[in-house]
Design goal:
D-Maltodextrin-Binding Protein, domain 2; alpha/beta; elongated; 5-stranded mixed sheet
């Protein structure tokens, strides 16, 4: 290569590098992937909220719904989740104790109500508080081999609340052997919807979203621990923390609160989570 050719090649290479740098400066930033882990009972509401978040931001948002305990265990084992939404403060506290949450990010998200449902049209539902004898009478009416559908109390918050409520009425010991303990509260609802179980205990928001069950009773708030959903950012999650903060802010903003209200969720208690 002659000296003139070498100079021409160098000028061309420099121009190409400059053009590439200019293009990179003006190219849109690659979307950051943010993974949200959320309790199964939040499915409809969180899907709608995240649709708004995607429309407003530049982040690619993925979501996984399951029982709060299952999700917490996955995070403990290193799952690459950025945001965790739990239907039970105990599972959030479990991760907090393991130092797996971003300091100061944990906060209350929503509240709910525990109800008893049977198969039928929601149009015929007449919700009313469960009196002391009502759950006993309902359970006594179960056919011989019929099951009571509810989430597994070991992992599913709705199941844990249901067990506590039945305990409060002095019924758990008698009914424990007849419980169909399933992996999610949505699975418990499905058993009642299909008639596979004649009776179930679920969250009010799950029943509200179904046209194939009727609410026959609402458990008193003092029969179980307060139903509190919490949200937090997961410590050590991959990618840009700013992206996780943007999605977190969207999930906890006023527009999200309006969606939660429309889906039947209650505002969370005002008190901040304390030590557990």
């Amino acid at each position: 290569m002659t000296g003139r050719a070498r100079r021409h090649w160098r000028r061309a290479a420099a121009a190409a590098l400059a053009a590439a740098a200019l293009t990179a400066m003006h190219a849109p930033a690659a979307a950051e992937r943010v993974l949200v882990y959320a309790a199964g009972s939040l499915t409809g509401a969180v899907e709608e909220i995240l649709t708004h978040c995607r429309a407003e931001g530049r982040d690619a948002i993925a979501v996984s719904f399951a029982a709060s305990g299952v999700l917490a265990r996955q995070i403990e084992q290193g799952a690459a989740a950025h945001i965790y939404l739990s239907a039970n403060p105990d599972w959030m506290a479990y991760l907090d104790d393991l130092h797996l949450l971003v300091d100061g990010s944990r906060q209350r998200f929503a509240g709910n109500t525990l109800v008893m449902v049977t198969p039928g049209s929601a149009d015929t539902a007449v919700p009313q508080p469960v009196g002391f004898t009502t759950p006993a009478a309902a359970l006594a009416s179960l056919p011989g081999d019929a099951r009571l559908a509810m989430g597994d109390p070991a992992y599913v918050p709705a199941g844990a609340y249901a067990r506590a409520a039945l305990d409060a009425f002095g019924l758990w010991a008698a009914v424990e052997g007849r419980v169909a303990a399933v992996p999610t509260v949505r699975a418990a609802l499905a058993l009642v919807e299909t008639g596979a179980a004649p009776l179930g205990i679920v969250f009010a928001t799950d029943a509200q979203g179904s046209r194939r069950v009727q609410v026959v009773g609402v458990f008193p708030e003092d029969s179980h621990p307060p139903i509190v959903y919490e949200i937090a950012r997961v410590a050590g999650a991959p990618g840009d923390p700013a992206a996780a903060r943007r999605v977190f802010d969207c999930l906890t903003g006023p527009a999200a609160a309006a969606v939660l209200d429309r889906f039947g969720f209650r505002p969370p208690p005002a008190a901040a989570p304390g030590p557990r």
